[in-house]
């Protein structure tokens, strides 16, 4: 039987901070200890992972979104015995396509030349579902990006560009794993979630309809429900159900 975690580590994504997980941290605080690391201080995924491990207890449950997922994979390389459960939100194990890598490098160069604009109005529709564009969700995304700032963005983008390919290590993951993706995610599409799901034995895939790249903000209550269930339910490794949330 799987050990019940007492600490839940929540990893933010690129240009995100603790506000990404605010609903989940508040709702689950009576059930587990919550720790949300700062992923803005290092310019490599390996260093980010070491910092998380240095701050975390001996064993913990690990949930991560987007860039945080890259850090989660690195934690699974460095210290797999410390992770009791793994939840991957809107991330991918594969490396960037040449086109996407070129886009990252272009944004990095602009930021290094002092032209950091945070999350622009042009980028926002790629991050969140259109129904949230004129809402507090959009405002929170912009506030987080402003708080991370140019220097944090440069460090994070350098780390992402240099990251390792995590596809080869997916078969080694032996803990209960939840994979969640917004059906309308344009940055890490459903196909990437399926790829991870197919390679992680016993993983469970959840596809959230009418949701973009940021389920913890776009669907906070549902994200909390999924995490609570993942923390409590024993995964038997005999297959999964594919759940599509429809409005």
UniProtKB/TrEMBL annotation:
A molecular function GO annotation: hydrolase activity
SUPFAM superfamilies associated with the record: alpha/beta-Hydrolases
UniProt key word Hydrolase: yes
Annotated InterPro entries: AB_hydrolase_1, AB_hydrolase_fold, AB_hydrolase_sf
UniProt domain AB hydrolase-1: residue ranges: 7-220
Keywords for this protein: Hydrolase
Pfam families: Abhydrolase_1 (PF00561)
Ligase listed as a keyword: no
PANTHER family (alphabetical): AB HYDROLASE-1 DOMAIN-CONTAINING PROTEIN, MONOACYLGLYCEROL LIPASE
Name of the protein described by the UniProt record: Alpha/beta hydrolase
